From TrEMBL:
Cofactor(s) of this protein: Mg(2+)
Domain dUTPase-like: 39-166
EC number: 3.6.1.23
Organism: Wallemia ichthyophaga (strain EXF-994 / CBS 113033)
Pathway: Pyrimidine metabolism; dUMP biosynthesis; dUMP from dCTP (dUTP route): step 2/2
Protein name: Deoxyuridine 5'-triphosphate nucleotidohydrolase
Pfam name, any one: dUTPase
């Protein structure tokens, strides 16, 4: 603990910084700070929508097969016990092959929010200011301590992955023929 930390110690033994961080983790609403006048607050499209639509503050073209960071012009604070998952909008994905990447916003992140969009189509795609480009889904999260062990318990599945429990392709057709 530094001299400054000792001087800033609260009556309960926490530092001023720790006290501010604790208050931040007790947030029970999605807090949004507009960083520019054209920014829009995330908004749910219907009463039962799981996600909050996220809006671009810029005009940008994403080339065919390329990717781009889209500025939302906001910073956020998600409620305690959650993280923000940036997910694709179904219409953009189905009709235009626009998908999201790198979609986790941690509870302690306070920087400017961007959305990474991938254009998986054969045509350039234009984003305009005010376009809904993705959706933010708040998901509950639990974190646990990490413990190193020498061995893990055995399971029926074991180390099988990448389609080992069935799926599409030749391996699956062979399984059905034998089964």
């Amino acid at each position: 603990m530094t001299k400054r930390d000792i001087e800033a110690t609260q009556p309960d033994g926490t530092t001023e910084k720790e006290s501010k961080m604790t208050k931040a983790t007790q947030v029970t609403s999605l807090l949004v700070k507009k960083l520019c006048p054209q920014a829009q607050l995330p908004a749910r499209g219907s009463a039962y929508a799981a996600g909050y639509d996220l809006f671009s503050v810029e005009k940008k073209v994403i080339g065919a097969g390329d990717k781009a960071l889209i500025d939302l012009g906001i910073s956020i604070s998600v409620p305690a016990g959650t993280y923000g998952r940036v997910a694709p909008r179904s219409g953009l994905a189905a009709k235009h092959h626009i998908h999201t990447g790198a979609g986790v916003i941690d509870a302690d992140y306070r920087g400017r929010v961007f959305v990474l969009l991938f254009n998986l189509s054969q045509k350039d795609f234009e984003i305009n200011q005010g376009d809904r480009v993705a959706q933010l889904i708040l998901e509950k999260i639990e974190t646990f301590p990490v413990e190193e062990v020498e061995e893990l318990s055995e399971t029926v599945r074991g180390a099988g992955g990448f389609g080992s429990t069935g799926g599409y392709g030749e391996d699956n057709a062979q399984e059905k023929a034998q089964g």
